[in-house]
């Protein structure tokens, strides 16, 4: 049975082109830099984001963590928003792997320069050293950060000699929403991580990009973390298709999300802040009791829809390559039915 899966964009299936490319990929030992398909992907990725070099990592989490490890020293503080993926969804890795502290900033949406400035530590013998500024675009909550905001944060960080890492898991969604080239976003960071495996439909993998010197050191750290991969060209082959064929179609997911948000907002008892729907994610709350809320995922599943339960008081529905406009109509019809219960 085919399910309509709106839990995330990570659930997307690799396309037939990806499967064909993986099947026929020429591979080698990538730890020895001997895998031509991986070398091709990394060169392509670096070029797309306007950086000197790039490196494949098995997950976005490893990409962020290897970047933090490469930028910082033990005891450093990493300044970031309190809702950042590295704070909430990476299992405490900054503390465990890099021995750094996260200095979280309370944000309504994203980090702003007037919040960043007072968080930078002065040179004081008692205080930790600020080692890194971390931004997201889009944020883990699906908000898109305006280019000028990124520029201000970046310039401020550099004024204090601080490197900037961008968690751009859905970087191409941000570029689509901003109507700009990804390079216009990544010009405001020293390193960037973005996922091949989310809306771009690759089965596995993310990219870290930065200066050649940074990536050389990051590659050593990746090896230490167990991320040195051998015939990884099979994964790179799908990644190349992701970057050449899948980045241009994300507007469709955004349009479907906007449509879903507008239709959900029309249902009595559902509350959607339409101004927060900028990419493929729709967050909403419902005027229902805990039992109704707890029962929703199972009810949706009976209708052929895989949807996540509530997190932090909100539901999140996500459109993706495998979700059509008709699928969205079915989701809306089911939500109407269940809201009447
Ligand atoms: C998905 C995501 C990541 C990386 O997640 P993995 O599941 O480890 O690939 C990092 N940051 C953000 C904002 C994300 O949404």
From TrEMBL:
InterPro entries: ArAA_b-elim_lyase/Thr_aldolase (IPR001597), Low_specificity_L-TA-like (IPR023603), PyrdxlP-dep_Trfase (IPR015424), PyrdxlP-dep_Trfase_major (IPR015421), PyrdxlP-dep_Trfase_small (IPR015422). Residues 5-284 form the Aromatic amino acid beta-eliminating lyase/threonine aldolase domain. Coiled coil: none annotated. Pfam families: Beta_elim_lyase. It comes from the Bacteria. PANTHER family: L-THREONINE ALDOLASE (PTHR48097:SF9), L-THREONINE ALDOLASE-RELATED (PTHR48097). This is Low-specificity L-threonine aldolase. Keywords: Lyase, Pyridoxal phosphate. One of its GO terms (molecular function) is lyase activity. It comes from Hydrogenoanaerobacterium saccharovorans. Its EC number is 4.1.2.48. Its cofactor is pyridoxal 5'-phosphate. Belongs to the threonine aldolase family.
């Amino acid at each position: 049975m085919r399910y309509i899966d709106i839990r995330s964009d990570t659930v997307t299936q690799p396309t037939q082109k990806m499967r064909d490319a993986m099947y026929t990929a020429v591979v080698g030992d990538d730890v020895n830099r001997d895998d031509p398909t991986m070398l091709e992907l990394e060169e392509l990725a670096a070029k797309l984001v306007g950086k000197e070099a790039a490196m494949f990592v098995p997950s976005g989490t490893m990409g962020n963590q290897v970047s933090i490890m490469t930028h910082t020293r033990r005891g450093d503080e990493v300044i970031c928003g309190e809702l950042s993926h590295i704070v909430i969804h990476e299992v405490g890795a900054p503390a465990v792997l890099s021995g750094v502290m996260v200095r979280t900033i309370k944000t309504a949406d994203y980090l702003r320069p007037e919040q960043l400035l007072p968080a930078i530590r002065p040179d004081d013998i008692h205080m930790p050293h600020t080692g890194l500024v971390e931004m997201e675009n889009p944020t883990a909550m699906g908000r898109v950060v305006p280019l000028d905001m990124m520029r201000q944060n970046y310039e401020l960080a550099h004024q204090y000699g601080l490197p900037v890492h961008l968690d751009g898991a859905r970087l191409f969604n941000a570029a689509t929403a901003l109507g700009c080239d990804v390079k216009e976003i990544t010009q405001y960071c020293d390193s960037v991580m973005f996922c091949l495996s989310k809306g771009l439909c690759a089965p596995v993998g993310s990219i870290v990009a930065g200066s050649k010197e940074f990536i050389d050191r990051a590659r050593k750290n990746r090896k230490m973390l167990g991320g040195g991969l051998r015939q990884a060209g099979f994964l790179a082959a799908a990644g190349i298709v992701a970057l050449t064929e899948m980045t241009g179609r994300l507007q469709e997911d955004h349009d479907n999300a906007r449509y879903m948000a507008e239709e959900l907002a029309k249902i009595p008892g559902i509350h959607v802040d339409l101004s927060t729907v900028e990419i493929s994610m729709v967050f909403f709350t419902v005027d229902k009791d805990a039992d109704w809320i707890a029962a929703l995922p199972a009810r949706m599943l009976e209708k052929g829809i895989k949807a996540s339960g509530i997190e932090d008081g909100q539901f999140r529905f996500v459109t993706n390559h495998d979700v059509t406009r008709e699928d969205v109509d079915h989701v809306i019809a089911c939500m109407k039915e269940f809201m009447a219960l």
